Every structure is written in structure tokens, then in C-alpha cells.
Amino acid sequence: MAIKPIRILLVEDDPDHVLLIESSFIKFGNKFQLSIVDNLKDALSHITNTDLIISDLNLPDGNGKALLQNENIRNNIPVIIMTSFGGEEIVVDLMKSGAADYVLKSNQAFMKLPDTADNVNKLWKMQLERKKAEEERKKLSIAMDYSPDAIVITDSAGVIEFVNPSFEKITGYNKKELIGKTPSILNSGRQSKKMYKELWETIKSGKTWKGNFINRKKDGTFYEEEAAISPVLDEQGKIANYVAVKRDISERIQMENQLRHAQKMEGVGTLAAGIAHEINTPLQYLSDNTLFIKDSFLKFIPILDKMVEFSETGSCDSYKINELMVYFKELDLNFLKQEIPQSIEESLNGLKIVREIVAAMKNFSHPGKADKQYADLNKAINSTITITKNVWKFTADIETDLCEKLPEVKCHIGDINQVFLNMITNASDAIAEKGEKGIIKISTRHDGKFVYIQISDTGTGIPDELREKIFQPFFTTKEVGKGTGQGLAISYDIIVNKHNGKIDIDVKKGSGTTFIIKVPIEDQ
């Protein structure tokens, strides 16, 4: 790669001096590119493509010091001033004015001028780089001081060397309390040792670790933060420091939870009328059958009274027997022998239906615990199918193919229930738009590490151009007033962000939609 020549502007009005200076630079070939002018006016018009200026102090149209007063030259181009005589006062004045160097004119000085120019150019570049680095350091320092994110720098052993004001504000600790300590001062005990082990293995290998912490502030309160921790390498490629950039997401998590809860309650509210209808049907024939059994029992009472009378008196003549037979004929015993068992059986079946609906609702609406717990996703699917029956029964039939030996998954089951509710409701709506009764198919399987839930419908599908938007908040393909656009966005957040899973989609316009949900069996 060719080295660019040092572009020098010589400002000199003495032809003999110009000749001597020019000959000294010619010896260095292409290392220097010399331009020559003999006055200040021409000099100022040539500074655009100049790396260094060599100027006589006394020029026909002014003093060479005027070049040092030009802001563009002063900030970007070093200037060497040549004088025919130079007392100490002149030299000091030139250096204070901003000259990079000075030269007392002589044949010997002219011969050494290329070396002087080369050294001044190198020194100037070093100063510029140092100045640039200092400016960048100041900018970085200001950015770190005013950054809303908490920033902490540790040495290679994890001992804190620097924290910014946001770190102090979030944690409640001041710099004096943090410098020399390790970030474990914030440990809440809610992270597993396995997580910390994976963190250190990642950053020690030279990679960036990203994840969430639940930490404890100085006042003892907990907060959740997302963090990115990166190693800083020295010139030998060894880790010298670690830099962590953290953000308190407690409020965001709270808002997301509230949004999920609100969306869930909206779904439950929509289902309430349907659930009431589903429960009302078995309750109605429970009520009818109970009244029938009650009325039938009242008809038995006179017969029982007569039989008690016979047993007490010990007499039973033909008249009393005829009287008893009249009661039996009015009772229609054969009818009751057939209908009462059927009524009891229907009532028991109605009670079973009500219990199933109530159990499904209880399972679906269970708030769960803050930590992930092991749960049966097949049970969650069946519960959601039960409570959404009034949503889909008029538009679709549901077919299930659930793996009998599906392992329990460590998850937030309340959130997973919400995903199933959103998926089944969307599938039902998509089929309804098509105008003919369709099928919703739900299947589960696993590979030992992940559980896969596939939910397919025979609805209208989604156009290709809208496929990438369906998980965006507030995006909906439904008519105005028929969708909030939050269902799939919240489902995506629950599966991908909260459970480190994945949602894939296979859409065929006019032929339905298939969602494949992938959830890790163990917490990741």
C-alpha cells in the first residue's frame, strides 16, 4: 500500500531560500509534496490540501504569525516559522502564538528542514490522536454520567472500579460503598448458582452475557433488571475489565403483568356469559329432576302412612287393602320405577358437568406463584378447551392429539393458559370469518428438552404481507371493535421473552393457520 506524501506549503518570498529549501526536499523523493507561494494571501488560499506549513516570519503582505491566528490552521495544520534572526523573546512569542516549531535561517537549517518537518508532522498527529482520545473520553464520561442505564466496571476478578450516578440511584449505594466490593453486594438470593456459573463461563470465554437479575437495593427492596456484561481485552488480548450495562425494568415488568392480567380478565369477561350458559343447562335439568323426585316422593307418603297404620294395628282387611291399591294406581308405580333412576342419573351427570366447568375455570384462572412451577400442559389445554366451549362450539369442532407421556414443564402456568386462550379464540374467530364450520386441531409432543404445542385451524389464514406484523402490539386483522391487537403480542412475550421459547407460524391464505409453540421443559 503506497504511503501518502506529506503535503507541505512553503511560504517564502526569497528566491534563493526557496531554491535551497526545495533542493533539500527533492532528495527525499515522494515522501514530501511541496507547494510554494510568496505571500500570505496566496498561502491562505492553499491550506485546504495541506498537512504542514513552513513560513517566513516577514512576508511582503504581513507577518507570518497571521497564519497562526487563522482558526482553521490553528486547529488542523502545524506551522513552522522561519526567522533570519531569533532572540529569546521572539522564540517565546512564536511558541505562545501556537507555532509548532521555529527555524533560524541558514544553509544547514535548510538541509535539516525535511527532518524537522517530518518530526513536527508526527508529533502533531500524536497530539491530535491524544486530543481526540481525550475528547472521546470526556464524551464517554458525560454519556456515562447522564445515562439512564446503570453502568459498572470491574477488574478481571469482578471487583468494582467504577459506577455511574444511575447505578447509585437505582441501588441506593454510593460510590464509596461500592468501589472495592463485588456486585454480589446486590445479591438477592433469588438467582440460582447455575445461572451465575453460566454467566462467568460466558464472559471469561470473551463473549457477552445477557440476562435478567432480581437484585436487592440497599434498603432491602427487590428490583428486576436486564443486564449485558461484556469483557474488555488489553493489548495482549487478555481480559482486563468487565463492563456491565443494566436497566431497572421493575416498572416495565409490572406494567406487562398488568397488561397481561387486563387482557386475561378481558378474555374471562368475554367467556363469562358462555360459561354461565354452559352451567345453566345442566342446572336446569338438575332443578327439574329434583322437583320431579320431590313430587314423586310426596305421593309415596300416604302409602307409607297406611302401611305404618297396618303394622301398628296388626289388622289388614279387604277394605283397607282396596284403599291402598287406589293409592298405588294413582302413583303409577311402573312409570316412577323407570323415570326416577333416569332422573337421578341425569342429575349426577349434570353435577359432573358443572364440576368440570368449575374445575377448568379454577385451573385456568389460578394466579400461580412468582416463581415458575412444574405444570401439566395437557391439563391446561383441556381446561382452556372446556371454558372456551361457548366461543368455538358454534363455529368449529376441536380435535386433540395429546401426548400421553408429556413431561411437566417448569413455567408460569397462568400465563401459558392465557396463550392457549388467545390461540383458541383467534382460531375460532378465523373460522367464523370464513362462514362455514371448521376444525381446530391441538396436538402436543416432546423431544426430551422441549414441549411442542401445535394449534391449527381451517380459517381464512393471513396474507403473506401481514405475516411479520401479527405479533406486533395493537396489530389486528379483525374489524374495528372486534380485536385489541394484544392477544398474539402478549402470547409472543409470554413464550419468547418470559419462557425462552419460540413461536413459529405456518400461514396459508384461505387454508388456515398453524401455530407451533416451543417451550423448554426446564427453566432456561
Task: Give the helices and strands, then pairings.
Layout: E1 6-11, H1 15-26, E2 32-37, H2 40-45, E3 52-56, E4 58-59, E5 62-63, H3 65-68, H4 71-76, E6 79-83, H5 88-97, E7 101-104, H6 107-146, E8 150-155, E9 160-163, H7 165-171, H8 175-178, H9 193-204, E10 209-216, E11 222-233, E12 239-248, H10 250-313, H11 318-331, H12 333-365, E13 373-375, H13 377-387, H14 389-392, E14 396-401, E15 409-411, H15 413-434, E16 438-446, E17 450-457, H16 487-498, E18 502-508, E19 512-520
Parallel strand pairs: 1-2, 1-3, 3-6, 6-7, 14-16
Antiparallel strand pairs: 4-5, 8-9, 8-12, 10-11, 11-12, 13-15, 16-17, 17-19, 18-19
Descriptive tags:
single chain, 524 residues, Rossmann fold, Beta-Lactamase, 4 domains, 5-stranded parallel sheet, 5-stranded antiparallel sheet, 50% helix
